[in-house]
Every structure is written in C-alpha cells, then in structure tokens.
Amino acid sequence: MTEADLKADLHRYLQEAREALLWKLDGLSEYDIRRPLTPTGTNLLGLVKHLTTVELLYLGYVFDRHFDEPVSWLGHHAEANVDMWATADQSREYIVGLYRRAWKHSDATIQALGLDTVGHVEWWAPEYGKATLHRVLVHIIAETHRHIGHADIVRELIDGVVGTREGDGGIASGDQARWEDYRNRLERVAQEVGRS
Asked: Can you give the pTM of this predicted structure?
C-alpha cells in the first residue's frame, strides 16, 4: 500500500465519522441539540464544537499550520470545558460551519504533509509529545468515533434515533413494543444477577 493509499484510507474513516456526527443533529430543535443529557453535560452541539477544537489543534497547531479564523474558545485563557457546549450566541449554523471549515483546514494538512512528518503535541506526556501525522490521524479518528458513540446515546435519549446514518443496517429492527420488551428482559436479567 502506498502512502497515498494509506492517507486515503485514513481520510475515509475520518470523513465518515465527521458526517455521522453531523447527521445526529438532523431534524432536531435548537433546544434538543443543546440539551445536556448526562451528569457531565454531554450534548450534541457541544460534541461538534469539541471535535472542531480537536481538528484545529491536532491538524493545525501541532504541525504549525494555524487556522486563519479567530476561534474565541481556543487558548490558555479559555474556561474549562468551554468547547463542550455552545453559548446562546453560537448558533448551530456557526458551529457546524466552523466544523466544516476545520475539515478543509485539516484536509489541507493531511494532503500537504507526509505521514512521517513529526509535530509536537504539547499537552501529551513528554515521551509521546513528538508525534507523526500518522499517529495524530489515528488519534483523531479514534476520538471522533468515540464521540459519535456519545452522540448516538444522546440522540437515542432525545428521540430514539440510532446509528451512524439514515437506514443504518447495523442496528436491529423493531417497533417500540419490541424494544420495550427487549429492555425489560435485560432489566430482569440484571436484577436476577444483581441479587445473586
């Protein structure tokens, strides 16, 4: 496999993940995309904002390829977790648009650099801080897919939609009654084992 083939393969996994994340917002209200549905505040638009930050830092800053637009929440002065939720003045259109522009910036970095190009990830432990583009890409793909899992659970809690795209064949089919029966069966097993 050539480097170009390997880059194309890694890029495909990253792009599929990017698109799956944005699909999670489809058809939802402004309230629902911002709703914190876990004790730590996980919400759909916040996940998009966070992964925008991830791409700008890892495929920009790490390789000294800085993004042209100012991003208010980036920097040492930023409040903790500020990239995990959207403020009232940060619209869906702004966050999604910025994410898409970050893709273009990231894709230009992927295209311009060799997989063996070394960048510096200053927030990693010193022994890991010098990282190749290949390692950084694998990290971003893993991180993006991890957050799609979070988004999948959050979206299911909102309206029951699951999967990574419309008509996702990886999800068992069934109507609401079937899923309630299935969940109740799992609950019975959990209670039975929990009493043991």
From this structure: 0.91
Residue 105 — φ and ψ, nearest 5°? -65, -45
Which residues, 6 or more positions from 104, have their beta carbon under 8 angstroms from its beta carbon? none
Q: Are 2 and 73 in contact (CB under 8 A)?
A: no
Measured at the CA of 46, the angle between CA 79 and CA 21, to 5 degrees, comes to 145
- How far are the Cα atoms of 16, 28, 72, 148 from residue 60, in angstroms, in the given order? 20, 31, 16, 22
More confident of the two residues 196 and 145: 145
Which residues lie below 8 Å from residue 115, measured CB to CB, with a gap of 6+?
3, 6, 7, 132, 133, 134, 137
Q: 93-122 pLDDT, tens per residue?
A: 999 999 999 999 999 999 999 999 999 999
Q: Which tens digit of pLDDT belongs to each residue from 3-28?
A: 999 999 999 999 999 999 999 999 99
Distance CA 31, CA 159 (A): 13
Question: Which amino acid, one-letter code, is at 136?
Answer: V
Q: Where are the alpha helices (DSSP H) in the chain?
A: 3-23, 30-34, 44-58, 92-112, 133-159, 176-195
Over its C-alpha atoms, the chain yields an Rg (Å, rounded) of 19
Residue with tokens 């495929």: 59
